[in-house]
Amino acid sequence: MGFRELLKEKEFIILDGAMGTMLQAKGLKMGETPEAMNIEKPEWLLDIHRRYVEAGSDVIYANTFGANRHKLAKCGYSVDKIIGEGIKLARQATEGTDTLVALDIGSIGQMLEPTGTLAFEEAYDIFKEMVIAGKEADVVVFETMTDLYELKAAILAAKENSDLPIMCTMTFEQNMRTFTGVDISAMCLTAEGLGVDAVGVNCSLGPKELYPVVEKICQWTNLPVVVKPNAGLPDPVTNEYNCSAEEFAELAKDLIPLGIKIIGGCCGTDPKYIACLKEMLADKKAVQRNVHIPAVCCSATDVVVIDQPRIIGERINPTGKKRFKQALLDGDIDYILGQAIEQINAGADILDVNVGLPAIDEKAMMVRAVKALQGVVDVPLQLDSTIPEVMETALRVYNGKPIVNSVNAEEKSLNTVLPLVKKYGAAVVGLTLDENGIPKTADERFKLAKKILDRAMAIGIRREDVYIDCLTLTASAEQENVMQTVNAVRRVKEELGLRTVLGVSNISFGLPSREIVNHNFLMMCLTSGLDLPIMNPNIDSMTATVRAYKLLTNIDKNSVDFIAHYGADTSSPTPKAEKKSEMDLPYAIENGLKGEGAEITAKLLETTDAMVIINEMLVPALDKAGEQFEKGKIFLPQLIQTAGVAQACFEVIKQKMLAEGGNSVSKGKIILATVKGDIHDIGKNIVKVLLENYGYDVIDLGKDVDYQTVVDAAIENDVHLVGLSALMTTTLVSMEETIKLLRANNVDCKIMVGGAVVTPDYAEQIGADFYSKDAKQSVDIARQVFGN
Amino acid sequence: MNGYLQVELDSLNKSEALRYMGYGSTAPDEKIMSMMNEVEKTLLQVIKPCCIYHVFDIEARENSVAVCGTALVLEGKAITEHLAGCTKCVLMAATLSAHADRVIRRYEATDMTYAVMADFLASAAVEQVCDRADEQVRKEFGEFYQTWRFSPGYGDLPLDIQGSFLDVLQAQKRIGLNATENNILTPRKSVTAVIGLSDHEIPKGRQGCTACNMKDVCQFRKRGDHCGI
After folding, report:
1. Which CATH architecture group holds B2-222?
2. Do B216 and A759 touch (CB under 8 A)?
3. What is the pTM for the complete model shown?
4. How many whole angstroms separate alpha carbon A627 and alpha carbon A623?
5. Interface probe with A: pick from B25, B178, B190, most Cβ of A within 10 Å
6. What is the distance between the terminal CA atoms of chain A, rounded to a whole angstrom?
7. Does the CB of A237 have a partner CB in chain B at under 8 Å?
8. For residues A298 and A229, is the Cβ–Cβ distance under 8 A?
9. Residues 6 or more apart from A752 whose CB is under 8 A from it?
10. Helix/strand/coil for A558
11. pLDDT digits over A180-189, tens only?
12. Which ipTM was obtained for this model?
């Protein structure tokens, strides 16, 4: 009988107990590689496995938990060998019984980007190697996971390289989250969406403390739920777990009414715990759960239930935005992050992400944008692209359950997009248009909505995961059809019971006072059942309309949210604005007044040439700050603050120049990189801000940058100054290697180096042209190199 | 002794963070202080500071110290001197959690001034967590004299023991602490350290800049200051 049959036939599935503590009892030293025992002490493993089989385990975990190439590096055995032997030993121990063998896979032991340096794609490769090595197992188990992103890489590796069933369990703390902040429901939604066979929790706490965790898991999935708790909590003095085998089984009994199906033990448990569990379960019936999972999307940390209007921010989209297009051309991710944070602060619940521009590699940019965004924002993303390959790559690297924007009723679209939605467990926006365009009437659009829904459900996409966009037409061109959209929204909502989504701002195209038209149209749609307006949340009248709607429909109980935003108390922590009429640019810069600096710059631009502003106002003010910094009169935060104001001023100048199609204001291109292996990049980022504000174009390659990437970027962009940063003695060698490779490729550039551990002597020794002791000096070097 | 400390911090050491940023005797202005307060509040809301530690018997060898019952050997002259006369050592690992990294990243995308403040403030905070661990060790092992905290990478104690160090403490499982291939701790605002326990008073003067491999480039030393370790 295989694992899936076992799930159907048996009331409960009993797993095994701890492996690590059992091995330690046999003599494994702390810090030794437990998996090496598969080769060195096979008799230990046979004994432990046999005792679990005898105790009544239906599934035993092979000793392969940490058998990944990263962790095995220190013991010298190959992944293939350790996993092969591990499965063989487990199989040998089950001979003559029905007990199944699981390929057990834990965390890699390195954090994924952006906190760590392990790329998602590399994590996938590491898991893939393990899954292939363990193909003789009956089921693949991923356990003790704390990062949903790592778990996603693992699940994809298993799904795409094996047909074995998959169980996955994460480790939650008493605050109901993992160490990295993963929410229980986010795990359930994401794992179930990716098509695992069972989901749950292991390790963490004892069966008693895990009750609320298990309760929440059971509310957020219809899959069989796995629980593998520790033997209680460890005593701080003796380090013994406080729960006996009998108590463990007794406490586990309380979890049955919640609807668990699969149970075993983790740290501190042994075969006796499993025997007690088996005895306790002998006369118990599993409780069937039938939970309704609502329309919902999530990131790893935030779950957004579409049970009331939720704002989808539309600003991450280059359409009609010159500045955004320029950011895409420059690979300026910080600009995109800034747009994201601004929208969230204004009230966006979800962000649409579209980085489509014919001149760039949309696929690569989408991956960069999604990864960068989920590294800093918590809200879920709506992935927006018309190219299926771009969509698939975005779906792969997204951490959570995203929304796909979009599919439409054309055959080609249905056939390419819906399978992706199904495979990655996303929700999808269905546009009510087909080969014949957008139908005029509400009735025809309703029919297309129905068609999209039927096709989605036919391949196993849940009804709740289909959101319909009835499409806004501009009132200036087709005034007579505006109400068709509104009526279609109502019918889709009422008759199909689906969530509705709508980009509202198009309604006013070509009209004066667009804002008035927009927020009134928004209110009409909300009243007709619109759930997900795609809009610009930075426009207060729009966001206010949604808030007012929620107040008036009794969603915002006691008007709490509304009052919080528009209540009488407007005292803000920001220092009061100073009298603007008397202020000039140097004053604003010196005093760190960003908004004021930008305003003054905009005003100045009406009468003054941009280069005059830069050379005669911005640069001298920055110079003055730099000088004071060197003399110890001002300190790092103030220096950066002045740079921050200058940055705001530059932004205004850039916008104006782009709008006028004028020349750029660049004084020269500079590459900055934190070298391979190093992830301390705050120093480099400070240098970047300063250089940019002296008018240099900085190509920021980020941290942990491959040698070759620096060389390629320098050649491709014809860059003549490269700045390298390292903060660790251990990564200095990467700095040297990068310089060697630049020289070997005859790149015509000067190299400046800096960072806490770099000395002038060392800089010279490794062949750098300049040593930069701080951000200020890097500016001096740039001036020298570019002669400006 | 297998300690786990969930550390509750009511405030972060802003004066220490300001010192890291170069403020010596000069007091920061009101605006800088108000920004620091804001950053402190943001960090306090999200970080989950915690620390684990474990005491081991040790065996001094010629130029290394073996940590009994583990596969770990602390190599080098510096650590051998540091633990001279000690019969036991405490291995400890402390972290502010990955939430601190996220706060700093977010600030980096919006305002570098705040980012720099958050970075330094988090560095000061992880030292506060270590201080708590130190206190706890003092409480539990009152009968011993204890050394200051010596971390992998100091002197000639190689940084590449970081992985084994974490394995011995099961730091990944217990507090979510990892090391990259280049032995950088992640989450970033984390510390591993060794505290020696001795029956005899520990001579002063063993602590100081001479043992530090940063002594030639140290910004604190350049301005006649001390990092505080």
Report:
1. 3-Layer(aba) Sandwich (3.40)
2. yes
3. 0.92
4. 6
5. B178
6. 77
7. yes
8. no
9. A721, A722, A723, A724, A768, A769, A770, A771, A772, A778, A781
10. helix
11. 999 999 999 9
12. 0.89
